[in-house]
Amino acid sequence: MKKRLYQLLTAMMLAAAFLVPAGCAAGGASAGQESGETASEDENERALERAKYYMFDNVMLYYSREGLIRQLKIERFSQAAAEYGADNCGADWKESAVKAAKSKQEYSRGTMINLLKNLGFTDEEAAYAADYYHK
Predict the structure, then answer these.
(1) pLDDT attached to residue 61
(2) What percent of the chain has pLDDT over 90?
(3) In angstroms, rounded to a whole number, what is the distance separating the alpha carbons of residues 4 and 81?
């Protein structure tokens, strides 16, 4: 029972971080940055360091590319810097999906895929993770 409660709380925390409305998460981004203006080199480097932290030093949460970008935006990085960090941190998004799916092993393949897609994983990443546990 405690394990199931922990899994549900973890899933709720991930969903809460992922579901923050885009306008609320943008924080420090200006309208120019949202429409394609590039971020400064310094901001890109700071976003990259945070992205690496989330993907490699954080042992509790496993992010999709979209979820990581949203998390970086919550930390007030611009859209451009958040994308830079996610795209350059060296993450293996399929492996991240497999790790995220570990706590969802008791679900059917289809339910697992839907849960992973709700966390921002692509169809391909979610199917890869589901196939890993439902061979």
Answers:
(1) 86
(2) 67
(3) 36
CA angle 42, 23, 80 (to 5 degrees): 25
Residue with tokens 């709720």: 12
Please provide the DSSP assignment of the chain as one string: -HHHHHHHHHHHHHHHHHTS-HHHH-TT--HHHHTTPPPPHHHHHHHHHHHHIIIII-SS----HHHHHHHHHHTT--HHHHHHHHHHS---HHHHHHHHHGGGTTS-HHHHHHHHHHTT--HHHHHHHHHHH--
Phi, psi angles (nearest 5°) of residue 91: -70, 145
Band (21; pLDDT cuts 50, 70, 90): very low
The 10s digit of each residue's pLDDT in 25-79 is 333 433 334 446 688 999 999 999 999 999 999 767 899 999 999 999 999 999 9
d(CA 79, CA 76): 9
Q: Are 103 and 8 in contact (CB under 8 A)?
A: no
